[in-house]
Amino acid sequence: MATALKIPNMSEAEWNARLELAATYRVFDHMGWSEMIYNHISLKVPDEEGAFLINPYGLHFSEVKASNLVKIDIDGNKLDDNPYPVNKAGFTQHAYFHAKLPWAHAIAHTHTTATMAVASLEGGLQPINFYACNFIGNIAYHDFEGVTVREEEGPRLLESLGDKRILMLKNHGPVIMGKTLGQIFLTHWSLQRACEIQLATLSMGKPVVVPQHVIDVHQRDLNQVELPGGPGAPDLAAMIRKIDKIDSSWRE
């Protein structure tokens, strides 16, 4: 992943984090998960306490580069001379989770059609397909309160999340949290597939519901074989190789 350091006086750890985050934005766009200039993926700077990287407000995911990511503090204040602003709706919710959850190093929020549709459905995600069974019992839901720009909503978001790592904002879309970008990429991909298949299934008629005892076995057996690098690392790496062949400008 690493390339020559592009920004003077920047640590190697931060530059590598910028590279991986910029690549992840390009991967999300390649997968069709971008939403004009909106939505967000944030990442803790590994060697700088209280510092985070996020996309420049005003740029499409396809325009994000390692050098134009904005470095901000926990309150969303810029820590560098980046000319781009930060979308308040983007970091208000992220900041609260980053501050209160030590393990939440990476957070993604998207507005894909499939995930928003399921978030807007009574009962949310249903145990009616392979991928959905990965998530049953592992998703939290939060009632829609409007655009997420008010800090006072933070405690309610955290209360709704509980001990989960995925928060479905009802009528809005998912917030996915994890220790690594690979982890949130794989989680988002699997959740997206679950929601897409649910939409297709419900459009045809009455679904076959998987019983809880089968879901329990399914979830128990999911991680019997893990590839090196941790959950999602090989998946994200494969996609980065793919987008690198298409456009490697994210490395700039």
Topology of this protein?
Elements: H1 12-30, E1 40-44, E2 52-54, E3 70-72, H2 88-100, E4 106-109, H3 113-119, H4 130-135, E5 140-142, H5 154-161, E6 166-169, E7 173-178, H6 181-204, H7 212-221, H8 233-246
Parallel strand pairs: 5-6
Antiparallel strand pairs: 1-2, 1-4, 2-3, 4-7, 6-7
Helix pairs in contact: 1-8, 2-5, 3-6, 6-8
What is the structure about, briefly put?
The chain is of the alpha+beta class and 252 residues long. The protein has helices spanning 12-30, 88-100, 113-119, 130-135, 154-161, 181-204, 212-221, 233-246, and strands at 40-44, 52-54, 70-72, 106-109, 140-142, 166-169, 173-178.
Description:
The radius of gyration is 18 Å and the shape is globular. The chain contains eight helices and seven strands; from the N terminus they run αβββαβααβαββααα. The chain has helices at 12-30, 88-100, 113-119, 130-135, 154-161, 181-204, 212-221, 233-246, and strands spanning 40-44, 52-54, 70-72, 106-109, 140-142, 166-169, 173-178. The chain has a seven-stranded mixed β-sheet, with helices on both faces. With 252 residues, it is α+β, with helices and mostly antiparallel strands. The chain has a single domain (12-222), classed as Class II aldolase/adducin N-terminal domain (L-fuculose-1-phosphate Aldolase). One of its GO terms (molecular function) is actin filament binding. Residues 19-199 form the Class II aldolase/adducin N-terminal domain. This is Class II aldolase/adducin family protein.
